[in-house]
Amino acid sequence: MLKDHKAHATIPVADLARARAFYTGVLGFDEVDSENAGAVMLRSGGGTRFALFQTPNTARGGHTQLGFDVADIEAAVADLKARGVKFEEYDLPGFKTVDGIADTPPNRAAWFLDPDGNTIGLLQLG
The pTM is what? Predict the structure, then answer.
């Protein structure tokens, strides 16, 4: 059954070279060998992977496309800000970020956009 297999996300991008530079250079992911010229597979923690796929259909969902669990959200946000990543700020009824971080008891979360407008999230479990 599928529940017994690793899963991966596929992130749509308009410019694969630009996306590759952001995900490997700015975010620090390692590329996994791929024979597909229109896609790049990247390695994340715990043996997980995700793909960047060049497509003219870059329609975005209005939600987080890819999320990462982090142990210390302040440290993760500070590290990424130092690399030039700009975090989203939200001020909605019952939901507000402060310096890019939202307290969502018992968890904490933060979001940023990749160069193609995909929302990437960080989550510190409470």
Answer: 0.90
Residues 6+ apart with CB under 8 A from 105: 126
Q: Which of 122, 80, 70, 71 is nearest to 101 (CA)?
A: 122
Residue 81: exposure state from Cβ atoms within 10 A (0-12, 13-18, ≥19): middle
Rounded distance between C-alpha atoms, residue 122 and residue 110, angstroms:
5
pLDDT at 47: 85
Residue 36: pLDDT band with limits 50, 70, 90: confident
